[in-house]
Specification:
- The longest helix has 22 residues, at 2-23.
- The protein has six helices and eight strands, in the order αααββαββαβββαβ.
- It is globular.
- The protein is of the alpha+beta class and 235 residues long.
Length: 235
């Protein structure tokens, strides 16, 4: 009987010790290195260029053009044609349109296009063609549009450059980036002020503009013989 009691008491003592061990957390050895605060790794900030994938589309138009405009501040573009050259100046106070025009010039889009509409004593319009490369560019950039940048002092004067746009189902008057026109009327085209964004002007080559305006056109106002563009950003 004594042996049974002894064994029972021994078992209780052993279980009590085991329970104590499970409740007591081990105390780690403290070293100078262990007391140092290790800073959390700082996540690399994503650049705006990375954020918009470096490709313009209808969803990131403003962000892309704002960044591209800062990185590409040029305002002078040379347009070469078979009838002569035209040099244009883009306005800084229409930054999205300026940025878009520089972008499409540098990517080579405009150099695949030609004059596709002539209305004498009104406008010479360009930025389109039947070239398959033109269609490819438009598909690549998802036919993004540009918010209007109307400025009270930017009028449709002779030699002004403005952005074409759709007139139907376009209450915000957003511009197409691909097509533009020169005002060829020497009295200006002021009846469309506030309807299209004027974003630049001709500074050299008015004689070339007049030569283009005299080109024979078909019933669709497209020149019978194409007048292609070769565009270069100067400065």
């Amino acid at each position: 009987m004594r042996i049974i009691i002894f064994l029972f008491l021994s078992s209780l003592f052993f279980l009590a010790c085991q329970k104590k061990k499970t409740l007591e957390a081990p105390v780690p050895k403290v070293t100078p290195e262990a007391t140092e605060i290790v800073p959390k790794p700082v996540a690399k900030k994503q650049s705006l260029t990375d954020a918009i994938n470096d490709t313009i589309n209808r969803r990131n138009t403003i962000a892309f053009l704002t960044l591209y405009g800062k990185q590409n501040p040029e305002t002078i573009v040379l347009i070469e044609t078979r009838l002569g050259d035209i040099k244009i100046k883009l306005y800084k106070d229409t930054p999205l349109h300026r940025s878009s025009f520089i972008f499409l010039t540098k990517t080579g889009y405009f150099s695949t296009t030609c004059v596709h509409r002539i209305v004498q004593d009104f406008v010479v319009q360009g930025g389109n063609s039947e070239n398959p490369k033109t269609r490819k560019f438009r598909r690549k950039y998802e036919t993004y549009t540009i918010p209007p940048e109307f400025r009270a002092h930017r009028k449709h004067k002779y030699g002004a450059i403005a952005a074409a746009r759709d007139w139907e189902d376009n209450p915000k008057k957003v511009s197409t980036p691909f097509e533009f026109y020169f005002v060829q009327d020497k009295n200006g085209g002021h009846h469309i002020d506030g309807e299209h964004t004027v974003f630049g002007e001709i500074i050299e080559g008015f004689d070339t503009l007049e030569k283009i305006a005299l080109v024979k056109v078909g019933n669709d106002e497209w020149p019978v013989k194409d007048v292609f563009f070769d565009m270069t950003v100067i400065r």
